[in-house]
Write a structure and sequence with these properties.
The protein is of the alpha+beta class. It has ten helices and nine strands. Helix 1 packs across helix 3.
Amino acid sequence: MAEARRSPAELRSMFGANLRILARSYPSISELSRQLGINRTQFNRYLSGESFPRPDVLARICAFFQVDARVLLEPVDAITKGSGPLTGEFLRDFVGAGANDVEEALFPSGFYRFSRRSFLDHNRFVSGLVRVFRDGNATYIRGYEARAAMIAQGLALTRDAREFRGLVLRQEEGVAALISRKGAMTASFNFLNRVTSFENNYWVGYVARTVRETPGSDRVVRMVYEHLGTSIGRAKQAGKAGGYCGIEDLLPFHQRLLQADAPFG
């Protein structure tokens, strides 16, 4: 194959050209090299095609940009054409841009206690626990539906049926998350922005679900997230307390932020 006969200089040149393309969406090369854990001077040598990364550094770069080792052999546009919808060429600079590098300061990793009004019963509320974590330059969210909510919808109570996962996106005034249970037959869209609190650990916004309109049920309700940190013990305690409840059973600051008696629109 022609690729196997490429000289080291040709490989360095291809890698440098691809790396320059991948780096275009980052306003600062210094910040990008910091996130990658690579010395700025050395990173510039990669960009110019003067130097080639060690295998472990190459693996780190590929994981960060969500590409594979073909960056040595093929133009990066050809590699990303077959990638996922958010990282492919069509959406990469639009929806995909918000999915990259959600800063820890904007939305920290760890466990969150959440509360919201029930979609099915206007007089009841739901509290629960989710985990936010990073993998490469993407931020994910994972949690489990309350058993009572699954029973109310006539759904199975297995762990797989209750689990939901989602992707967190940067927004101008906060973060959004697209979340679905396994099979992606329904989804929810969450928007949250940070509010002033003693520990600066609260977000408030709303959640909208992708179902048809029906009498007596809501499709959009206000939601509160409280960052608990990374303590497993504190997370377990919050998880055990989750489920259906009355407004009076929620923590006082959750009650205040949910504004249960105020119209929502």
